[in-house]
Amino acid sequence: MSGWGDCRSDTVASSTGAPQGTVLSPVLFTLYTSDFQYKSEFCHVQKFADDTAIVGCIRSGQEDEYRELIKDFVTWCDLNHLLLNTTKTREMVVDFRRPRPHPEPVIIKGDCVEVVHTYKYLGVQLDDKLDWTANTDALCRKGQSRLYFLRRLASFNICKKLLQIFYQSVVASALLYAVVCWGQPQEEGRSAPGQTGEEGRLCRWHRAGQPDICGRATDAEQAPVHHRQSKSSTAQRHLQAEEQLQ
């Protein structure tokens, strides 16, 4: 039922749930699942619409709380008529110990949950080494594919203002997606403390590839020659494409 002012529509009972792709579907699903919450010192449930992640910090092999939380979540889904798709459920273990032990598999309704090394969650590629290599490679491929359209626009003599808008809205928005998670502050010509080589590669690529609409020299032009030569082949192709815009 919907209403506007004093007008009300007829009430219709729906047994198929909210249609996928509608504006209200994530809101209704969030309200429907809001009563299952859990947060302790070592485990918590992270939810975003229908993407749910159970995060646990296991110390000294104490997995009881983590596994009990999984069982409680499965039971809650059954009681609330929610079908848990075990074929799409994955488990990723981050463990820096040497040698790395093999944890006991998680069993949900007789199905063994697959253990993966990388997993895409909310558009960010996570890996069990936390070095962001997979995420950086994915962002570079996405940025390179979108640069093709930027080069095509430049070939039509589009004004530099529109090129800048296109770059910021289409290219830079993809490169800097979730940068607060994998990025680190960086000074000019220096890597930030704790910043991996993959993060620095993407940050240098973004600065070098950004077209200079106002006629100022880009960071790549101001950087020493040996700095530009140290870039990967992908970054070099990006730089060459952007230099054609000048």
Report the mean per-residue pLDDT as an integer: 76
Hey, roughly how much beta strand do the residues contain? Answer: 5-15%
Number of strands: 10
Q: What would you report as the Rg, rounded to the nearest angstrom?
A: 24 Å
The best one-word shape is: flat
Secondary-structure element string: EEHEEHEEEEEEHHHHHHH
Unreliable stretches covering 5 or more consecutive residues: 191-196, 211-239
Tally of helical runs: 9
* Terminal residue distance: 57 Å
Which secondary-structure class do the elements indicate? Answer: alpha+beta
Give the biggest sheet. Answer: 2 strands, antiparallel
* Helix percentage: 40-55%
Walkthrough of the structure:
The chain is of the alpha+beta class and 246 residues long. It has nine helices and ten strands. The protein has helices at 24-32, 64-79, 133-155, 160-175, 179-182, 197-209, 219-222, 225-229, 233-243, and strands at 3-4, 7-8, 43-48, 51-56, 90-91, 107-108, 111-112, 114-115, 118-121, 124-127. It has a two-stranded antiparallel sheet with strand order 1-2. Strands 3-4 form a two-stranded antiparallel ribbon. It has a two-stranded parallel sheet with strand order 5-8. Helix 3 (133-155) packs parallel to helix 6 and helix 3 (133-155) packs parallel to helix 9 (233-243). The model is unreliable at 191-196 and 211-239 (pLDDT under 50).
